[in-house]
Amino acid sequence: MQHESTDTLAYAQPQLYIDGRWLDAGDRVTEDVLNPATGQALARLPHATRADLDEALGAARRAFPGWRAAAPLERSRILRAAAALVRERADGIARTMTLEQGKPLREARLEALASADTFDWYAEEGRRNYGRVVPGRTLAQRITVLHEPVGVCAAFTPWNFPAITPARKIAGALAAGCTLILKLAEETPGTGLALVRALHDAGLPPGVLNAVFGVPAEVSSYLLDSPVVAKFSFTGSTAVGKLLAQQAAKGLKRATMELGGHAPAIVCADADVDQAAGMLVAGKFRNAGQICIAPTRFYVHAQVYDAFVQAFVERTRQLVPGNGLQESSSMGPLANPRRLQAMRTLIDDAVQRGARVECGGQPIEGPGFFWQPTVLTGVPEDARLMNEEPFGPLALINRVDSVEEAIERSNRLPYGLASYAFTQHSATRMQLARGLQTGMLGINSLNVSMAEAPFGGVKESGWGSECGIEGLQAYCDVKLISED
Q: Under CATH, what is the fold of the domain 263-451?
């Protein structure tokens, strides 16, 4: 395990980024950035003052006319240059991410590279933000439809994916011609700031992008109350998303929100059990289960239930929790001590209601915030675990007797972010595709997150989508022009 002094030396001191300038803590309020694998402080993070937020709002407002007027080719050039810098710096960004977030280094590097891919994709899609020509009612009439940037935007990002989540918001807004004030997660500031620095070094004009930190509720409230902000994007819990939506409604501000999930995974009677178990273990315990689209509620057909449980548990026991900087580690820590207590509370409730712990179920002794990869079977639907997103390394496996039952139980919750299913039968695929209430469905695949396709949920899992053409158009107003 790395020594604290070595970690601290490798971790850059976080700064605010406002109007093209990097601002140190000075006399601002600060908080510790912790390494969740050791519990030790990495750096002190400055909080933006009200004056800082006003400066960021003013900078974004002043920069908007010029950035809006910039040719799409110029905006594309800057995003592509930033993508190239992120790839060059991927190893350093990954180390920063592992230090502050905890995920294994190889996962962190893949996330950094995926962020570069997101910049690249939006760089190209921004050049194709086409309007259209509508046939007129007479030969003299010409009707055109334009997509124009909505204006100054605010974005709020979480700690679990500190590169790819900011990248989606930054790239979508900038490619559309908007300017942005970005509040990065206070737990993981270094990763997002590395993306901001890449854009700065790529020649992004001052004020187009600003990055701030602070008490989340205070910063979001201040920005959403400002008439300067025309739209916001938020990734986080459903509860917080509802509060932000209520506040934004006062100014009728546009919103894109990717909120909580509790993803079902259906294993049908004709599924390849070994394939399903292997993919679902990898998907469930990636990032220690701290993923909004992680498969969590497993509904397995009775004909393959015993074989699936055995295969899943065997693979789970092979996982090696540990410091993400160590090559042997296959799962990192939870974010903070509160998550450890949440795991304990949720598991105890499920066991009291009749669930069985097949493996794991305990914290791991030693430094850091580690929990054993855990599998529970026979978890009743009234258990808290089956109704609250655990956001941790807990897999819940239940038996079902039909696809219809699996779909009904999957749709029971108010969430509808991601769902997964394993089947070889084409008719069953169509039944699942039509029956599941979800924003994203992976069939024999867990790959539902990519720059070129929409990422978002339905019901209480969100409004709108990021990525794909939908993610670009979310930052645009539609203007009709009718000429005679």
A: Aldehyde Dehydrogenase; Chain A, domain 2 (3.40.309)
